[in-house]
Structure formats: structure tokens, C-alpha cells
Design a protein that fits this description.
The protein folds into 2 domains: 33 residues; 80 residues, Immunoglobulins (Immunoglobulin-like, Sandwich), CATH 2.60.40.10. The protein has 159 residues and is an alpha+beta fold. Helices cover 18% and strands 33% of the residues.
């Protein structure tokens, strides 16, 4: 008798997988789960640090020396008196200009300090002694510079 084909019944599902695999639940062991969670947390911490907490890299700052402006040379010009002036009074008017702030005038018997005005002018009277009086006029700047003019004035009340 001729053989009749027999149908075989396969135990496969629609996905092509054996049906035993669909019904079997797979479980992850606790150590693997713990290491997986810890790994994810460490990864998130590293990413968070590098993106948010770590300061951004900036190029190095090259420090250049600060150029201090060179102060202007101190000037002192005397308008009066002139060297060798003869006076009959015991005082004399000293006046002039400077780009300094303070002017000191010294004689053998007197010392006078005067401040220049905003435009650099100064004037004051100085007491004289009979005979030759040496006047030392010194201007001082705020930067510590000084400039001096020395001259002689003769006081003679008998002329």
C-alpha cells in the first residue's frame, strides 16, 4: 500500500520560536541587577560632573604688564623776583607757575609753603633780612618729583 503522507505537528508559535521559549520566564540574578543599576548611576554621575559641575576650560590668561603713564616733567617758572633784585621793603612778592602742586620757599629766616591753583599759578610774600637773601623755591609734584630755583634778593632799607 502506498504510503500516505503524514502531517507533522510542530510546536512552534507564530514568531517562529519554539513555544517552550514563549512560556518560560527569564529572570536576572540579583548581583547582575545590582551591578547594572550601580553602573548606570556611576555613568550618570560622571556625565553630570563633566557637563554641569566641572568648570569649562578657558584659555590661559596672558598677563601683560600695565603701562603706567610717564608723568610730565615738572616745570617751575618764576615771574618775580629775578636774581639780583634790590628792594627797600622787608618783604617781597614771589610768584610764578608750575605743573606741581606744592611750592616751598626758603630763606635764611623764613619758610613758606603754598599750593598752586588749578592753572598752576602761585604767589606769596616772603619776609627778608637786611642784606643779601638767598631764596630757594622748590616745586613738588604728586608723583614725588621736585624742581628748584635759587636766586638772591638784596634788601637795603637805606637806598
Amino acid at each position: 500500500m502506498p504510503e500516505t503522507p503524514q502531517a507533522t505537528i510542530s510546536n512552534t508559535s507564530q514568531s517562529g520560536m519554539p513555544s517552550e521559549m514563549h512560556t518560560k520566564k527569564q529572570t536576572i540574578s540579583k548581583p547582575v541587577l545590582v551591578f547594572g543599576v550601580v553602573g548606570i548611576l556611576v555613568g550618570l554621575l560622571v556625565i553630570g560632573y563633566t557637563m554641569f559641575l566641572k568648570p569649562p576650560k578657558t584659555p590661559p590668561i596672558i598677563q601683560q604688564p600695565i603701562q603706567q603713564p610717564t608723568p610730565a616733567e615738572l616745570t617751575l617758572t618764576l615771574e618775580s623776583p629775578t636774581d639780583g633784585t634790590l628792594v627797600v621793603e622787608n618783604e617781597i612778592l614771589v610768584q610764578g607757575t608750575t605743573n606741581g602742586t606744592t611750592i616751598a620757599i626758603f630763606t635764611e629766616t623764613d619758610e613758606t609753603i603754598v599750593e598752586s591753583t588749578f592753572d598752576g599759578r602761585f604767589e606769596t610774600t616772603v619776609q627778608l633780612s637786611p642784606g643779601i637773601n638767598s631764596l630757594i623755591i622748590t616745586a613738588y609734584s604728586a608723583e614725588g618729583q621736585e624742581k628748584t630755583i635759587t636766586l638772591n634778593v638784596v634788601y637795603d632799607d637805606e637806598v
